[in-house]
Structure formats: structure tokens, C-alpha cells
Amino acid sequence: MPSPTYLSAHDHAKISAAVAQAELQSAGEIVTILADRSDGYTDIQLAWSAAASLLALCALVIAPDFYLGLYDHVLADWGHEWTPRAIISLAAAVAALKFGAVFLLQLWQPLKFWLVPPPVKTARVHDRAIRAFRIGAERRTTGRTGVLIYLSMREHRAEIVADEAIATKVDPQVWGDAMAAMLAHVREGRIAEGMCAAVEKVGAIVAPHFPRADDDMNELPDRLIEV
Length: 227
What we know:
TPM_dom; membrane; 9 helices; alpha/beta; four-stranded mixed sheet; TPM domain-containing protein; transmembrane; elongated; transmembrane helix; 2 domains
């Protein structure tokens, strides 16, 4: 399934211009990534399906007469003899049906992401941001001054990751202002404005520690990466 496009060409140009402007103030190199999602969460989908299957089996164990009677009533099979083989077959069929039904229900993406526990979303967005940073920004600048702004839409989460030179001088909590500025816009559907606000804040945070040199070169692309 292709990822949806959240921003127009005009929005992309606006963010690129914000990055270029922020980089005029410091030696920092800002990379922006907008992701539809940070993980497929297939393991969580399988876990919920397995849990539903197990609960169905537990219900069958707790109230066997009710469920066996319900089966006989639905099929009008009044003379049915419940042998151990028949009971096990029914249990297996119920478990399989429950598993399949819950798995298929989670193909509806809003439900699937609603069922993912918040700590799992946070951890996986963080992991994806770190991987993206290592690929696209870490140690790719002369002064180790790369900063990644990563926004993951399905999870409603964002990360800011800085290269080692910046990380040694800027406390991670300082990025909170940039995150707050971005999310205030994103919550109202103004994604481009949110990214631009974060870029501006990051530039202002980095500038006092890493002022731009006269011979500074643009080492990383200013364009937004949308995945």
C-alpha cells in the first residue's frame, strides 16, 4: 500500500526555504523527514489476534454447556453427540475464526494504530528516527553538526536527533521548545508550518554554539524527505 502524500510541492518548497534560512545562522545542518508511519506493527496485530483466539478458548472452557448448546441450536443438530474429537475440532475452529476475524479487522488502519500501545509507538518512532539519522545525517558533516527533525504521522509522534558535536553542548531537553512549536501546528493540520517552526527553533538553538563560518558549505540537502 503506497504511503499517502501529506504535503504539496509548495509545502516542500516552504520547508526547504526554512531549512536554508536556519542554516544561514549556524554551522548546523538540518535534515527533515516526514514519515507516514515508523513501523508496520505486524507483531502487535498478531498478538491481538492471538489474544482474541485465546479468550475464545477460555470462554469455551469456562462455559462449555452454553457454547455447545448454542452450536446445536444454530445448526438445529439436536441429536449431535459431543465426542472429545468433536469438542476439540469445535475449539480449533472457534480459535481460528477469532484469530482470522481480529486480524482482518486490524487491516483497517485507524483501528490497527489505536490498538498499538503508546509506549510501543514511542519506542519504534524513536528507533526509526535513530536509523534514519544514522543513514542520512550522522557523521556526514565536517563538524558533526547534523540535526534530524523526524515526524511520524500515524503514531502522532516526533523526534529530534543531533550529531555528536551538537549533542555534547545541547541538553536533549532543550529540543522540547522545537517539538512543542512543531506539534502545536501539526495538531491543527498545519504540517508544513509545524516543520518550519521546528526548523526555526532548531536553528536558533544551534546558532550560539556553532556560529556559521565564512567558508561554511551546505553539506546536506535542504529538501524535506517524505516517506
